[in-house]
Amino acid sequence: MLNVRNYFVFIVIALIFYPLAAVAQDNLSRKKNRPVAKQEIQKTLDKDEKQTKQQIFTIIPQEINLGTITADESSKGIFTLKNISSDVVDWSTDGPSGWKRLENRKLSGTLRNDFSFIQVGVRLLPRETEDKQKSASTYVEMKIESESEKLICRKEFQVGTHKATMEINSSDGQRTIIVTFTIRYIQENPLINLNPLRLDMGNVLQGKTVSKKIILSNSGNKMLTWSVAIRKHAKEDFPDDFRQGKYISFVNEEVRGSGVYNVPANLKEKIKLMGQWKESNGYPTGAEGENFIKVNFSGTGIILYLATYQEDEVNMAMSIDKSPLDNVNLLEDLEKSKGELLIAEDLADGPHVFTIVSKNSCLVFEGVKILGGNTAYFPEGSIRIVPNSGATTRQTNYITVSFNAGQTAPGYYVDDIVFHTNSGEALVEVFAEVLPQTVSKVVDIYRYFNGTDYMFTADPQMEIKKLVQNKYVKEGIAFRLFKPDTPGTISFHRWYNPRTKGHFYHYDSDGGGKDLRGYLYEGTIGNIATSKLTNTRELYRWYNSKTGHYFYSTDLQGGKINKKIYKFDGIAGYVK
Fold first, then answer.
1. Is 323 buried (19+), middle (13-18) or exposed (0-12) by CB count in 10 A?
2. What is the predicted pLDDT for the residue at 337?
3. Which CATH architecture has domain 190-232+376-438?
4. Strand ranges (DSSP E) for 260-394?
C-alpha cells in the first residue's frame, strides 16, 4: 500500500514540473535563435572600445604626498606609467606649472604594452649666509627622473603645505598629476615669518575701532621667542628716506582659498581687472595670457608691491597715464628690493592711471602705495596688540591688531609694529585713514520722470537745464545715498541712452555686466552700499523689456509700475 502511495506522489510531481521545464527550455531556445540587432552589437563594441581607449595610458597614483621636507630632510615618490595596448604612446612633460626649468628641455618617453616610472624628489636648496636672517622663504628644487632622463625645476616657497601640478602630455591625451609637500622649517636657528608685512586697516570713522590679524610662524627648527610693540618715536619728523603715502592692499578675504580673485567692494572704484585672474592667499595672480590691472589714483607717485615673485619669471609691462615705463631699469633691482618697485615719483599732484599687463606670469600682486599728501604717526595708545609675546616652535600664532580712532583727528596714519625675537628684529608696517563723522551724512536723491524714463539726481539745480529741456516732472525724494568715502560704500554711476531715452544706474563703473553700447556716461550721483549696513534698506530694480527702461525703488512692490510689463531685476544696492 505504501509503494502505491509513493508512486502516485511521483506522478503528481512530474505532471506539475514537466510543463514548466518545457516552457523554460522553449524560452531559452528562442533567445539563442533570436537574431541580435546590429545597433546592439555596435553599442557593445563602442562601449568596449571606449573603455579600452580610456585605459591605454594610465598613471598611478594621480597624487603623491611627499610629506615634510626640511633643510636636512628631502623626500621622493614614484608615479607608474602604464600602456596596455600594442600601440605606441609617446609622453612628455614640462614639469610643474609655475616652476623654473634649469634647462629649456622636456622630460619624455615612449611606451608600448609596457610600463615605466617617473620619480619625483624635492629638497630645500642651501641659502646664502646673508639671506638666513633676512628671508623667511627658500627655493625648493624638484628633480623629475624617468629612465636615464631627468628634469630639474625650482621655485621659491615659504614654510607651509604646497601643491605642484604637473601636466603629462601624450598621444593618448593629457593626464594631470599632483605632488604635495610640506616645508617645516628652512634653517636650524629660529626665524620669524610674518604675514602680511604691510597691514592695511582701511578707512576708519572717528570713534570707531577696527581689527586685523597678523600670522606669525617660525621658519627655523629651534624655538622662537618674541615680543611685540608699537615703535616709540622721539619726534614726529619722518626719516629723510621715508616716502609718505597711502597703502592699499589688494587682498580680498572673502575669496581666500576659492582659486578665483575678485576685487573687494571697497576697491572697485580704484582697481579694475581684465583677463583671467586667480587668487593666491586672497591676492590676485595671473597665469596664461595677458591679464590687466588698472589702478586709478590721485597723488604724486606710486609704489607696487609683489607678494611672491621670481626674478626670471617677471614678465609684465607697465605704464603711467598710457605712457610706457622702462621695465629694464625698473626691474633690475627687484631681488634687492624684495618685491618693492618704485614705479613713479614727482608726478603732477592729481589723478593718474597706473596700468599693469601680466604676461603668462604667476606673479602675485600684494598692493600699492600712493605717494603724496600728509602722513602722521598713530597717536600713542591708539593701537592694541594681543597677544604681545610668545614662544613658537611648530604652531602658528594669530596676532590681533586693533586701532581705536577715538578722538583721532581726520588724516592718514602710519607706524611700525616691531617684533623683538631671539634671532633679530622684524617689522610690520600698519596704515589707516581716519575719516570725520560728517562723512557718514547722507545725500537726498530726487526722482524725476518723463514717461517711462526715470532720472535720479542729488543736485537738481545743477541739472536744471537738462530737466527743463527734457520736460522731466519732479516726484520728490526717492531715497538717500551716502557721501563719498563713507566706509562700506562706493559710487553709484548714471548712464543715459539717447536712442531709448532711458537711464541706467549701477555701482560698477563698467555697468556690472550690462551692455553699455549706446549709453552716455553722466557721472555719479552719490555713494551706495553694496552690502546691508546699519539702518539701510534695499534699493530694488525692475526692467521693462519692451522699452529697455529701468525703474528703481525702495518699495518691494514697485509702487505704481505695471508688474505685467516690468520684471523684477534684483537689488541695486542699499540706501538710507
1. exposed
2. 59
3. Sandwich (2.60)
4. 271-274, 277-280, 283-286, 290-299, 301-308, 316-320, 323-324, 340-344, 350-359, 364-371, 375-377, 383-386, 389-392
The pLDDT value recorded for residue 493 is 94
Look at domain 57-183 and name its CATH class.
mainly beta
Q: Which three cell numbers stand for residue 477?
A: 525724494
Beta strand residue intervals within 397-548, DSSP E: 397-404, 411-421, 424-435, 442-450, 453-457, 473-482, 489-497, 502-506, 520-529, 537-544
pLDDT digits (tens, 9 = 90+) for 538-572: 999 999 988 999 999 998 888 778 878 899 999 99
Give per-residue pLDDT as tens, 465-495: 899 999 999 988 999 999 887 878 889 999 9
285 within 8 A of 261, measured Cβ to Cβ: yes
Q: Which position has the higher pLDDT, 37 or 357?
A: 357
Buried b (16+ CB within 10 A) or exposed e, 433-462: bbbeeebbebbbbbbbeeebbbbbbbeeee
Question: What Rg, from alpha-carbon coordinates, does the chain have?
Answer: 34
φ and ψ at residue 512, rounded to 5 degrees: 65, 30
C-alpha cell at 36: 541580435
pLDDT in tens, 70-107: 887 899 999 999 998 888 999 999 999 888 888 888 99
User: Could you tell me the pTM of the whole model?
Assistant: 0.59
Residue 447 grid coordinates = 526722482
In one letter, which amino acid is 281? N
CATH code matching the domain that covers 245-373, chosen among 2.40.420.20, 3.40.1190.10, 3.30.70.330, 2.60.120.260: 2.60.120.260
Place of cell 604717526: 377
